[in-house]
């Protein structure tokens, strides 16, 4: 079973090599890495070109942003399973894809996800927050629960059936997609209770008060459009993040 890993980049020269190394270092060999660059001018493309032999697909052209790039990458994917790894992020260890593939060996499984740690931008060994996702239950979606999107692997057939990222959302298209997929899929959803991805802090959704407010509005729209919930679910979604700041993370740091 082939796993397609899709990465979008834009002005990521400082971090993209770590991402590429993380995928290339996976023990699971039946994989492809697809990189969609938004027309970087900071040296990102030079790094990508120097690793061209590691990539199944490399496209560099201006586009509408991350979700546009992800949609282009998913369209190029040939794997039965698709995962998304952002240019700032790395897999927790070299066995991540192997464990994901083992879970998908059951044909009844449609989705696999795990835990995520937020790490320092300068030192990916330093854990700032720990997101323990917990088991999937459909009713949890109505209380604002979601799996960490960078850890979510989906069968490519789900994208073909239910669509890709809705680009009218500028920040919450990932939340909308997860609600759509998890509410409509028929197969099993498997939780791997371990860290799969180390994510550098500094995402677009929390860069300013304006971004935070826009994200909350888009989250609300995603909840409503998918028939999952409304204000209460949005409130619980935000409150549920608080344990990430107080959880003891030392034993989960991957060191």
UniProtKB/TrEMBL annotation:
Does the UniProt entry include the keyword Transferase?
A: yes
In this protein, which residues make up the domain named Glycosyltransferase 2-like? 4-158
Q: Which UniProt keywords apply?
A: Transferase
Instruction: Indicate whether Transferase appears among the record's keywords.
Output: yes
Q: Per its record, how is this protein called by name? A: Glycosyltransferase
What Pfam families does this protein map onto? Glycos_transf_2
| InterPro entries, per the entry | Glyco_trans_2-like, Glycosyltransf_2, Nucleotide-diphossugar_trans
Q: Which GO terms describe its molecular function?
A: transferase activity
